[in-house]
Design a protein that fits this description.
This protein has 130 residues and is mostly helical. It has a single domain (1-129), classed as Farnesyl Diphosphate Synthase. It is built from six helices and two strands; from the N terminus they run H-E-E-H-H-H-H-H. It has a two-stranded antiparallel sheet. Helix 1 runs antiparallel to helix 6 (105-129) and helix 5 (87-97) packs antiparallel against helix 6. The longest helix has 25 residues, at 105-129. The protein starts with a helix and ends with a helix.
Length: 130
């Protein structure tokens, strides 16, 4: 359960940051005002950062009955899913795709594979390691 919660925290961080004016500049998510519209852009950035750090802390401290070395490997997988080859890569390509009229299926697949699938794969890997 801690691994699933950690992945969900990172996904929520991604959504908060994705909605920011410097990213997709969305005012609504699922029909409700986005975090930065309700609390301000500064608090939205900090909320995302807090979720990111808390996800690692939660995974490391709330996982019980598992060898510490396996928990460390799970934290490593979580971090790997976020870095340049994972979630960040998908977000960068997504940002640079804004306004392009010739975005093809392969381009969209790259974005989705790196933004969302990276987290889902991470969850599977953590489950195997923990």
């Amino acid at each position: 359960m801690p691994a699933a919660c950690a992945v969900k925290m990172i996904h929520t961080m991604l959504l908060i940051h994705d909605d920011l004016p410097c990213m997709d500049n969305d005012d609504l998510r699922r029909g409700k005002p986005t975090n930065h519209k309700v609390f301000g852009e500064d608090v939205a950035v900090l909320a995302g950062e807090a979720l990111l750090s808390f996800s690692v802390e939660h995974l490391a401290l709330s996982t019980v009955g598992i060898e510490p070395s396996r928990i460390v490997r799970a934290v490593e997988e979580l971090a790997r899913s976020i870095r340049l080859e994972g979630l960040v890569a998908g977000q960068v390509v997504d940002i640079h795709s804004e306004g392009l009229s010739d975005v093809g299926l392969e381009h969209l697949e790259y974005i989705h594979l790196h933004k969302i699938v990276a987290l889902l794969e991470c969850k599977k890997k953590i489950k195997r390691k923990a």
